[in-house]
Design a protein that fits this description.
By secondary structure, this protein is mainly α. Helix content is 73%, strand content 0%. The longest helix is centred in the first third of the chain and has 33 residues.
Length: 417
């Protein structure tokens, strides 16, 4: 028993997760809907990593701000990260619009048989901005409102720096708390292979690959866009802006990508992203603990690309011609609605109303589009979440390089196979 456990833990984690993912897909296909009997394993894993998110974000972010020693560095890191997030999102939208315009996934699609879905009213930009400042921080913690938690953590860390020597005992507490959460993250991640197995098995057992047959062209465009964005935009940014080789980056992010694929949630993948950043990419806590929580909340490359593609898909399906002005409006609106998107499965579908409205789509038509895609969205959501977290780690690597907060020897170190 000891030898078998030693052999299991001797296998590098990303390989265990990948093996579990493949076996889960096979089990789901063979067993079918009966595989839902093990859905509790996946739900338990999700609960474990959700349990980590709020304390991990708050403690590591406060600790990261404290480790900067100078409040000015916070503005430097945050400003650079925000600019890069906007750039990667713009590139994602551009790739999505180009692919959708050329490949025309919506041409000839009949949406008349789709059951309309209820679409909530889009949240205004003013409301989004006001919600960043919590009326009650404890309520923000209870509701896992990440934007509000990030704001409160930044304020707490900055104030502790300004307090000076008298705040040292509390700074030590936050530093120890951050170390505790990072160690706990490593423990929880050991459960990832089992959770991934169950999550993928249930998706395959209840949906199956035949779901792609109903919207094959849309799926093909989305998946092509995801691959192009990672291999072109993210690697290009790492090479040009960080002056780092792209091979170690792609190898270093794979564990987080596999967790993102199985959970379909950027927030749920945050513990894995933090682990990959510090242990694989050599990004120091000052950057990792400030950029990654922010990215998990506001950086949605895959989501932005998906919304842009589905908008063009819907216009083609309803026979609505789009000119250059329409494409520009789609791009601009998609950037705005993607910021602060709830990082949970399928959240992007319910942002479509704001974007579709810009090209004259009626609420009834929007409901038909969402109703058509919703049953098949989980599999596509898995892919675009991979893009989201890869973008987070790409930006974190670049900012860390610019700030001198990256261990290049660890980054370039040959990973354990």
């Amino acid at each position: 028993m000891t030898l078998s456990l030693r052999g299991w833990f001797g296998i590098v984690l990303w390989k265990r997760i990948l093996l579990a993912l493949v076996l889960g897909a096979i089990a789901g296909l063979l067993i079918g809907e009966g595989v839902t009997a093990i859905s509790w394993i996946g739900e338990l894993f999700i609960r474990l990593i959700k349990m980590m998110i709020v304390p991990l974000v708050f403690l590591t972010l406060v600790s990261g701000v404290i480790s900067m020693d100078d409040p000015k560095r916070l503005g430097s890191i945050g400003g650079k990260a925000a600019l890069l997030f906007l750039l990667t999102t713009a590139f994602a939208i551009l790739i999505g619009l180009l692919l959708a315009a050329v490949l025309q996934p919506g041409a000839g699609v009949d949406l008349s048989t789709a059951a309309p879905a209820e679409i909530g009213a889009p949240v205004s930009l003013t409301e989004r901005l006001l919600a960043i400042v919590p009326e009650n921080p404890f309520e923000a913690f209870a509701n896992a409102d990440l934007l509000a938690i990030i704001f409160f953590a930044l304020l707490t860390g900055t104030t502790l720096l300004l307090v000076g020597p008298s705040g040292k005992p509390l700074r030590d507490v936050f530093t120890a708390g951050s170390d505790l959460m990072l160690k706990m993250t490593g423990i929880v991640m050991e459960a990832a292979p089992f959770g991934v197995f169950a999550l993928v098995a249930v998706v395959m057992g209840t949906s199956g690959p035949e779901t792609f047959l109903y919207l094959f062209m849309l799926a093909a465009v989305v998946l092509t866009g995801c691959v192009c964005h990672i291999l072109l935009t993210h690697t290009l940014f790492v090479r040009l802006f960080a002056r780092l080789p792209v091979g170690p980056f792609l190898k270093g992010v794979r564990e987080a990508q596999l967790v993102a694929f199985s959970t379909s949630s950027s927030s749920a993948t945050l513990p894995a992203s933090m682990s990959a950043a510090e242990n694989n990419l050599g990004i120091k806590p000052a950057v990792a603990s400030s950029v990654l929580p922010l990215g998990a909340t506001i950086n949605m490359d895959g989501t932005a690309m998906y919304v842009a593609i589905v908008t063009v898909f819907a216009a083609q399906a309803f026979g609505m011609p789009l000119d250059m002005t329409d494409y520009m409006l789609i791009g601009l609106t998609t950037v705005l609605v993607s910021v602060g998107t709830a990082s949970v499965p399928s959240a992007s579908l319910f942002l479509l109303a704001a974007v579709l409205e810009t090209i004259g789509m009626t609420p009834a038509q929007t409901g038909m589009v969402v109703g058509f895609i919703l049953p098949f969205d989980r599999i596509l959501d898995m892919s675009r979440t991979v893009v989201n977290i890869t973008g987070d780690l790409c930006v974190a690597s670049i900012v860390a390089r610019w700030e001198g907060d990256i261990d290049t020897d660890l980054y370039c170190e040959k990973p354990r196979m």
